[in-house]
Write a structure and sequence with these properties.
The chain has about 270 residues and is α/β, with parallel strands linked by helices. The chain has 12 helices and 6 strands. Helix 4 crosses helix 7, helix 4 runs antiparallel to helix 10 and helix 5 packs across helix 10.
Length: about 270
């Protein structure tokens, strides 16, 4: 997730390109237009956003800018079909659709943690709602460094709406990357999650933070409703072409409960 590095690699690739090559980035949050800002062939630059683990997650989010040629998007779509992916095509914007909706979801879960809810309560409320994993576990799986980068990007893009807890900086400075280095919101032994790391509460400002019971239904509503609101905004702004794309993206890429049909179907 390094804009300068992506631009540098794109320039190197373009210098040896023939006239049919398409350049795709798997960035989670950086707008494709910024990656292509200095591109020699901006009409051939787009996003192909895969989801981790790629071999298991069926979604492919193709991101097109105002300059992306239709033939380039069509080629990316055909490649995605050959891979057997469920595909949505979205308009370029900060976080596209999936990362943007997910970032608001994770930010709200982080605020609940700072306000006094416990890790198990937050994750349990969302798995009870129907998500395969809770948001705190998800931050460990994605990587805390990547998660905080995405949240910062969203905070810069939507400062009037994104509220981040103060403790995230302290968590990052503590060297926690999540599962990939065995240190995160949870404790890992031999690569397996064994339970929440109680010391995380100190990093979240435990001198001011006191345990506060919040009913599971309220935790679920806060996280899910902000996810839904951002999905609706993406539809209104034209980031999503159709409500169906919002539901496909949420179910196949973000783990929204399939039995609810997706966030817009749920509404």
């Amino acid at each position: 997730e390094d804009l300068g590095l992506k631009q540098e690699i794109l320039a190197q690739a373009e210098s040896k390109a023939h006239n049919k090559q398409v350049f795709a980035s798997n960035t989670s949050a950086l707008p494709i237009a910024r990656i292509a800002a200095n591109a020699k062939y901006p009409e051939r630059v787009l996003g192909m956003h895969f989801f981790s683990p790629v071999e298991k997650m069926p979604l492919l989010e193709i991101v097109v800018t105002d300059k992306t040629a239709d033939w380039a998007a069509d080629r990316a779509f055909r490649i995605g079909l050959k891979m057997g992916k469920q595909i949505i095509v979205v308009k370029d914007s900060p976080g596209f659709y999936t990362t943007r909706a997910l970032a608001f979801f994770l930010a709200e879960a982080s605020l609940l943690l700072e306000e006094g809810s416990n890790i198990e309560e937050i994750d349990g409320a969302l798995t009870d709602f129907g998500f395969p994993v809770g948001p705190i576990t998800l931050m460990d799986e994605v990587g805390i460094d990547v998660g905080i980068h995405v949240l910062d990007e969203m905070n810069n893009s939507f400062p009037d709406r994104v509220k981040l807890p103060n403790g995230l900086d302290a968590i990052q400075k503590s060297g926690r990357l999540g599962r990939k280095n065995g240190k995160g919101f949870f404790i890992y032994e031999d690569g397996k999650k064994v339970g929440p790391d109680e010391s995380i509460y100190e990093l979240m400002g435990d001198d001011k933070r006191t345990y506060k019971f919040v009913p599971a239904e309220d935790i679920g509503d806060r996280c899910v409703f902000i996810f839904i609101n951002e999905t609706i905004r993406c539809l209104e702004e034209g980031v999503l072409n159709h409500a169906y794309d919002g539901d496909i993206g949420a179910v196949f890429g973000l783990g929204f409960p399939p039995f609810l049909g997706g966030p817009l179907k749920y509404v």
